[in-house]
């Protein structure tokens, strides 16, 4: 399965193997490594080994009870019913009742315990995926649709859950029942057993023909639902853009196309999987008719007893039912394998390496230096975003990064935060290579105020305390006062206890920025990164934000990106970037005297 980038997300495209169609005889793509996937699922389930052993023992008990029931019925017919001797039947009837009660209890407890095992396994699987996601590099998320990742962590894991809840017991029970049934049938009549087994080749080829097609279709279905969920997530997140540009109809068409793809794959997957019970029932009925007809002739000629025929007709059902169950479960298992592969693909992604030797106890001074740094993103092929960048910023200085969009300003910020690592050149903190400093140590001494402030669905207290989780309520309030946010917070319905939504729709964009600044105050960073922190803000709010930022930057090494050049007049040093290179650098006064690019930018913006 391949994907193509569309204006509103990714859409799967069919490869040459995919477009052969479900009716073609040529082999389509199967699970990449289904044996390895099943083994990994088993290892997660096996963590509850004691309870799993108990379930397997109960499956053995239920299988034995299921075999004893028909045998006792046949014995009763031959020894008591046909001979019309009813003395001694009562213990057999009581034994039969006991067998079926024990069968019912064993089925109940094995299902009850297996549900607990399955839900525990899925819980551990989902937890590990989430933990792994938290430690993946930023580059991983930049290259993937967030909604599609969400689909893997929810829908695909739920598919695995449904399979573990039902299929595991059913597959094991079917194999056990099938083995026991064959042994008992052979002991009663090898000839009738041979007749019963005549349907096995037909069942095998029918199941193989169907599962070859459903495996591919279920895999494509999982990919299609991931793409569909990704588009829904993007649409909801970007609803303001959709409405602002009146793109509702366009989005409807995009959704219809992706939904239609999911519908088509789901239709064919379920259609083919639905063939299995129909085919199995047909073969089952044929087998039953053969056993009843041939067995009747044998009984009429005295070769077998009536009770044996009764036992065989019941066992023929028990013989074909496990085969039927195994065939049905193949579709569920294939769907689960397809989902599990997508989940394990996340877990197999390489996490951020943190092999630095500088631990969390080390306090940085704030000196930052770039030495001949060249950098390109993976998707950029040979195009370098930064080219031979060299500069240094002393502790407590404010450095402004200016330049047109795409000049490399945000990339420098990302390298400072070590969201990406450089391959050419060095990024140094206090003379130490950034790769020698643990990421947690580095980022714990940084704070970010970005253009789009992100809020969690939590109280104001909790949102601001995110900068430092051990901050007291008093420290949070003090940080908000310093950030000029206290007054508007007190006007909220519940003050600092007001629950904010993820999109922060209860407050303005400027107020969100003030909360982000308060969060940075609480963090008390050594290095501050400001990326367009005052963009899209009205003049009055901008003054408040600028005052808060000046207070926040005092005594800290700060890197500021701003298109509004009047907001960086207090910067100690300005770096002018063009196409990934530093074209000019110096103080405001030096750059104005130089009368170069920066002076021209100020002139065009009307600032004197």
Automatic annotation (TrEMBL):
Q: What UniProt keywords are attached to this protein's entry? A: ATP-binding, Cell membrane, Membrane, Nucleotide-binding, Transmembrane, Transmembrane helix, Transport
Q: Which GO terms describe its cellular component?
A: plasma membrane
Q: Name one GO molecular function term.
A: ATP binding
Q: Report the membrane topology from the UniProt record.
A: Multi-pass membrane protein
Which residues belong to any copy of the ABC transmembrane type-1 domain?
53-335
Q: Which Pfam families match?
A: ABC_membrane, ABC_tran
Lineage top rank: taxon: Bacteria
Query: What does the record list as coiled-coil region(s)?
Result: none
Instruction: State its location(s).
Output: Cell membrane
Instruction: Report the transmembrane regions from the record.
Output: 50-77, 89-109, 168-186, 192-211, 289-312
Keyword presence, Lipid metabolism: no
SMART domains, from UniProt?
AAA
Q: Where is the ABC transporter domain?
A: 368-604
The protein's name: Multidrug ABC transporter ATP-binding protein
Q: Which organism is it from?
A: Ureibacillus sinduriensis BLB-1 = JCM 15800
